[in-house]
Amino acid sequence: MGASNSSEKSAKTMNWDNLGFGLTPTDYMFVMKTSGDGCFTEGRLTRYKSIDISPSAGIFNYGQGLFEGAKAYRRADGHIQLFRIEENARRMKMGADRLCMPCPSIAQFTDAVKKTVLANRHWVPPAGKGSLYLRPLLFGSGPVLGIGPAPEYSFVIFASPIGNWYKAGASAMNLLVDRNVSRAAPGGCGGIKSITNYAPVFEVVKKAKAQGYADVLFLDATTGKNIEEVSSCNIFIVKNNVLSTPATQGTILPGITRRSIIEIATDFGYKVEEREVPLEHALDADEVFCSGTAVGITHVASITYQEKKVEYKTGEGTMSDKLRIALTGIQTGSAQDKKGWTVQLD
Ligand code: COI
Q1: What average pLDDT is seen over the chain?
Q2: Domain that residue 265 falls in
Q3: Cα 139 to Cα 105: distance, rounded to the nearest angstrom
Q4: Are residues 177 and 157 in the same domain?
Q5: Phi, psi of 215 (to 5 degrees)
Q6: Which residues cross the membrane (predicted)?
Q7: Of 19, 303, 24, which Cα lies nearest the Cα of 165?
Q8: What is the mean pLDDT of residues 247-267?
Q9: Structural domain total, the chain
Q10: Nearest CA to 159 among 50, 48, 65?
Q11: Confidence label for 154 from pLDDT (cuts 50, 70 and 90)
Q12: Do 102 and 180 belong to one domain?
């Protein structure tokens, strides 16, 4: 299914120079529902529109839902490519098992993403201006009242052209450590992309933003001593050319960007450690950066803890920048993909 002439016209009115991380509805979305046997069989593209869901749906009442984030990039030669999309499919399957939901197969997931991108191809920004963000959702859409898994599930993908996650011009972020709010606890759902992981930190992030911080850095819920994650991304520290990041042991999202950075840094010959990272190591680091699909690799300019602000090296010549250039080169097609991480769609 191709994009209609009308989509081409509306995409043509876009000012690609002013993209931020906000929703610009595109023309098509993908919808697939479980059939009588509880399995996903066939989905289809429809016009982008509101969906009709019972007020007693599992997602509304008990938060049975997951999301993913992925990006399609337009290369300088005009072709469109996706980055490690099977990894999103695998992560969704892991989360679905945890939340007792059936899940599209890897092939169904990737095929649906590709169809969604191609149907909205005119919404993929020109090379270097941003990307088309894909938001796959899996949720209990069947009615429930007693606590338990829903009787029916929906898989939906919508798309929006996006630019930078953080405000235009902000090349580095200032983080605030919050000791009072935990993002995830051992045994909970911090290690999957559960929809319920996000709203509980809105309040603390909103307060931090009101004080001028870009985001909040959360500490582990058990000891309150180790850094874990920022509201929307993973975190890395660099000290004496060694790269360290909190190990994923159930409370930290296993980021696809995070994993890619670990591989690229290892290929570059850097020592990489996945371990407990005490807050004092972060405060003593040479560089700190965040990683995620939405944020890419974003330098951290400072971390503030108990009124004390610690500043870090950012910009050209840092390890963070070297990794950022290597990763975005592969993602956007400006560097050769020797790792087989990208797939061209058109
Ligand atoms: C992403 O990086 O795609 C995410 O899912 C984070 C989200 C909170 C925007």
Answers
A1: 95
A2: 173-332
A3: 15
A4: no
A5: -170, 180
A6: none
A7: 19
A8: 97
A9: 2
A10: 48
A11: very high
A12: no
Integer Cα distance of 339 and 317 in angstroms: 24
Report pLDDT for 228. Answer: 97
How far apart, in whole angstroms, are the C-alpha atoms of residue 157 and residue 307? 42
Does residue 152 fall inside a structural domain?
yes
Residue 46 pairs with which residues in a beta bridge?
29
Tokens, residue 202: 């809105």
Residue 193 CA: which ligand 1 atom is closest? 5
The answer to whether residue 167 sits within a structural domain is: no
Q: How much is the CA Rg of the chain, to the nearest whole Å?
A: 20
Are 7 and 121 in the same domain?
A: yes
Q: Which of 49, 193, 271, 308 is catalytic?
A: 193
In this structure, are 296 and 198 located in the same domain?
A: yes
Residue where the block lists tokens 């559960």: 194
Indicate yes or no: pTM above 0.90: yes
Pair type for strands 242-246 and 271-275: parallel
**206 plus 150 within the same structural domain:** no
- CATH code of 296's domain: 3.20.10.10
If one residue of 157, 231, 232, 259 were mutated to test the ligand 1 pocket, choosing by the most ligand atoms within 8 A of its CB, it would be 232
The yes-or-no answer on residue 193 being catalytic is yes
The residue to which tokens 């929006």 are assigned: 160
337 domain-assigned: no
- Sequence-ordered list of residues with C-beta below 8 angstroms from that of 339, at least 6 positions apart, any chain: 263, 330
Site of tokens 């930078």: 164
Q: Which of 327, 320, 323, 325 is nearest to 342 (CA)?
A: 327
Q: What's the pLDDT at 78?
A: 97
